[in-house]
Amino acid sequence: MRKSHGSRLFTAGIVLCLASALFVACKDDKETTKPADDTLYGRLGGTPAIASVIDTFLVNVLKDTVINARFNSLPGSRVTALRQNLIDLVCAGTGGPCAYTGKSMKDAHTGMKIKEEEFNALVGDLIASLDRHSVPAKEKNELLGILGPMKAQIVAQ
Ligand code: HEM
Fold first, then answer.
1. Are residues 46 and 122 in the same domain?
2. Residue of 145, 140, 149 whose CA lies nearest to 49
3. If you ran DSSP here, which 8-state letter would residue 78 be given?
4. Same domain assignment for residues 67 and 130
5. Structural domain of residue 144, as residue ranges?
């Protein structure tokens, strides 16, 4: 039996609808898929993950008897500012979309006469936090490689 003109039109309409639905679906998919962020910032998990690492790090520092006297005397508002500065420093230093607006490492630590043993204790507290958050060895070493060279501006100033 020959198809009527109306039924052919109906079939053509369905095909067109399916084709345009597929096109829209594909187009949407393309537009919502972000390019992979392969910066260290992206691989660490962005600002929320960095903030979690810094929070655990600060808890570790406040429990660390080698260095906690340096921080226990700070008022809460200074600890809050230090936390934000640390997040910004790590975010900016790892290729993230942040600006670090705190003091230079030399200005921030001048007059403190920080010993090498204290620097190592603080790095140990950071490593413990990175491990606690299951940061892979590659990312952990890259971050330590960024912070390590700051030692010269921090120790014995
Ligand atoms: C790689 C190692 C370190 C980094 C990245 C670092 C980073 C910072 C930053 C970003 C600030 C805030 C600067 C500002 O207020 O504008 C700061 C302040 C400070 N840091 Fe460090 N620091 C490091 C090592 C140390 C060590 C080893 C000690 C002592 C054990 C220490 C003790 C302090 C203290 C007491 C302050 C001052 C907080 C205040 O008075 O508000 N830091 N540090």
1. yes
2. 140
3. H
4. yes
5. 40-154
The 10s digit of each residue's pLDDT in 11-33 is: 554 444 445 544 444 444 444 55
Using CA atoms, how far apart are residues 87 and 137, in angstroms rounded to an integer?
20
> How many Cβ atoms sit within 10 Å of the Cβ of residue 107?
11
Q: Which residue has the tokens 């975010």?
A: 91
* CA 36 – ligand 1 centroid, Å: 33
Pocket test for ligand 1, best of 72, 109, 116 (most atoms within 8 A of CB): 109
CA of 28 to the centre of ligand 1 (A): 46
**pLDDT digits over 48-101, tens only?**
999 999 999 999 999 999 999 999 999 999 999 999 999 999 999 999 999 999
- Domain identity same for 86 and 52: yes
